[in-house]
């Protein structure tokens, strides 16, 4: 329902029902705004003025293709129904938050972020752990058989594609694939999705990326590498999130946190690639939020050094407990003596289903014999020979507290299938490729 203010007939529109999302609007937020309008056609979509650069580029071409109004045209004190998408906190809506009377409004929320203490008290909400908020709205659109245009399908696809990292982020669910199939049936344009999801940094952004890379501090914690980088610039520069994404990519770290002061405010962006990373304990300290491995916060009128010190002091809180060699190793370990015959070693491996065995002499680990070593000996008719002639010497070992990330790196770097676990010079277990695969796919 829309009412015109008679005193400012040509400039102000009093809108009673509003669909809104967070500032720094990304494609999932934009897609969710338009999708929600399909479900609530009486409401008006307001797109925040602060948008990510790819969204601004998209709207520069398609802004007239969607039904929405400027936030400056809304008398926020008159809003009676507020529908939040891709956000559940009023504090992330922008400068007009103070004009909203939450107690007098009916509030509906569609979101896929984990609920936090800053969430608004809503009258109705759909908050589920899916890859993108637009997924939740699309499921309802499909259920109600509401038609969508190819352009809408493309925008909805952009929301899913970018928020799931092209269906590779761990928050991606089967539900994203289901609705993506529906969008393809509605003639979603994959070329447009590819174009707008691949954002190129401008020279100023490239310069900031270079400064952040050169000034990065590296912390090795419990088998993970965390990078924290801070910088101060004059004025305001957009796309710190994209810059942080690229810093994570080129650094090879498990997590990157950028802390940048722009004008009077300090902006924090966190990105992670390990499932042991949860950035929220840092970001929520500054009233920010997001996902465990992607989020942001803005600390208004603050000093860079103060914020950076607080970030550094909370780094231990973002790491989940490591899985170690002790947790996944097989024990006790079947071993062979160096004088054991090739044929006997083969029988032992067949019975136990082993692909290799440690070789121990006088309680001391001296080598590893693999099934392929036995096969090589048998090909030459040497089944009677001792295994010491074919075993690999000086095996690489790990300790019980070695993390699974470190174990995996050793296996990849040295192309080996098993790592003996040693404690006080004694063999206490063994970790194999199979053990790693079980953990990765559990």
Automatic annotation (TrEMBL):
Cofactor or coenzyme needed: Mg(2+)
One family name in Pfam for this protein: DHH
Listed GO MF terms: metal ion binding; nucleotide binding; nucleotidyltransferase activity; RNA binding
Domain CBS positions: 329-387, 391-442
Record protein name field: CBS domain-containing protein
GO biological process, one term: tRNA processing
Family the UniProt entry places it in: Belongs to the tRNA nucleotidyltransferase/poly(A) polymerase family.
Keywords: CBS domain, Magnesium, Metal-binding, Nucleotide-binding, Nucleotidyltransferase, RNA-binding, Transferase, tRNA processing
């Amino acid at each position: 329902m829309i009412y015109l203010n008679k005193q400012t007939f040509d400039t102000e529109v009093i809108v009673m029902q509003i669909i809104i999302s967070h500032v720094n609007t990304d494609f999932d937020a934009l897609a969710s705004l338009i999708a929600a309008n399909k479900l609530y056609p009486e409401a008006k979509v307001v797109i925040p003025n602060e948008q990510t650069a790819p969204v601004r580029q998209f709207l520069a071409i398609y802004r007239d293709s969607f039904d929405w109004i400027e936030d400056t045209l809304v008398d926020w004190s008159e809003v009676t129904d507020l529908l939040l998408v891709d956000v559940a906190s009023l504090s992330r809506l922008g400068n007009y938050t103070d004009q909203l009377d939450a107690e007098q409004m009916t509030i509906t929320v569609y979101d896929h972020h984990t609920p936090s203490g800053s969430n608004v008290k809503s009258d109705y909400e759909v908050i589920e752990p899916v890859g993108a908020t637009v997924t939740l709205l699309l499921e309802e659109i499909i259920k109600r058989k509401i038609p969508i245009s190819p352009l809408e399908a493309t925008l909805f696809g952009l929301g899913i594609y970018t928020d799931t990292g092209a269906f590779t982020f761990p928050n991606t669910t089967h539900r994203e694939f289901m609705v993506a199939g529906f969008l393809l049936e509605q003639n979603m344009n994959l070329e447009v999705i590819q174009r707008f999801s691949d954002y190129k940094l401008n020279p100023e952004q490239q310069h900031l990326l270079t400064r952040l890379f050169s000034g990065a501090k590296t912390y090795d914690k419990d088998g993970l590498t965390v990078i924290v980088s801070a910088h101060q610039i004059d004025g305001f520069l957009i796309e710190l999130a994209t810059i942080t994404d690229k810093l994570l990519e080129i650094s090879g770290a498990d997590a990157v946190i950028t802390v940048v002061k722009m004008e009077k405010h300090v902006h924090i962006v966190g990105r992670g690639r390990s499932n042991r990373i949860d950035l929220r304990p840092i970001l929520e300290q500054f009233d920010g939020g997001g996902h465990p491995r992607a989020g942001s916060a803005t600390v208004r009128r603050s000093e860079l050094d103060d914020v950076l010190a607080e970030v550094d002091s909370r780094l231990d809180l973002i790491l989940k407990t490591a899985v170690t060699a002790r947790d996944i190793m097989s024990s006790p370990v079947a071993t062979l003596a160096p004088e054991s015959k090739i044929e006997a070693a083969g029988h032992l491996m067949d019975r136990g289903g082993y692909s290799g065995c440690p070789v121990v002499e006088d309680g001391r680990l001296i080598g590893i014999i693999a099934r392929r070593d036995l096969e090589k000996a048998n090909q030459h008719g040497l089944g009677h020979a001792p295994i010491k002639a074919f075993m690999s010497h000086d095996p690489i070992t790990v300790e019980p507290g070695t993390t699974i990330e470190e174990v995996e790196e050793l296996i990849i770097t040295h192309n080996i299938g098993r790592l003996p676990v040693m404690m006080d010079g004694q063999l206490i277990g063994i970790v194999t490729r199979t053990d790693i695969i079980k953990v990765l796919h559990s």
